[in-house]
Amino acid sequence: xxxxxxxxxxxxxxxxxxxxxxxxxxxxxxxxxxxxxxxxxxxxxxxxxxxxxxxxxxxxxxxxxxxxxxxxxxxxxxxxxxxxxxxxxxxxxxxxxxxxxxxxxxxxxxxxxxxxxxxxxxxxxxxxxxxxxxxxxxxxxxxxxxxxxxxxxxxxxxxxxxxxxxxxxxxxxxxxxxxxxxxxxxxxxxxxxx
Length: 194
Fold this sequence. Notes:
The protein is an alpha+beta fold. The chain has helices at residues 2-28, 38-55, 57-63, 126-134, 151-156; strands at 68-93, 96-123, 138-139, 146-148, 166-175, 186-190.
């Protein structure tokens, strides 16, 4: 009987913790219904690319041959058992914005904390870029191959070794959660405020 009571209390505590986590997460993320304006997104994307190119020569070199670059300058990630992330960005083709997108992911498991970061996806072939542009929502891990570029890969990456696919660069990581990943992130076209 004592054991059943403990199990019941533990279940209620877990449910309370998950509910509290969800509330904290919802409050920490930008409001999805209140998308940033196109001008704000463009300004943030331009600043993010300048900073990325300044700190990561491999990204600057890839930008010269990329068919398109999708940049999410500010992604917020948070959670306590239940977590998620959200950010807004823009696709640049030939240096001009051709569309706006958001990135959303949810997760469940051993996690606690919050962080913010940005990332850029460099589309090196037309087929990968077309996949993004024609999809109703692209889940990373399904479709074109994405290579996450860390410091080791960046040292050996050049325009001759990077032939096709999509290369991802993370930047401006701040916060207390361990690890960054894109697997399972869903990217969807949005219409920002004017």
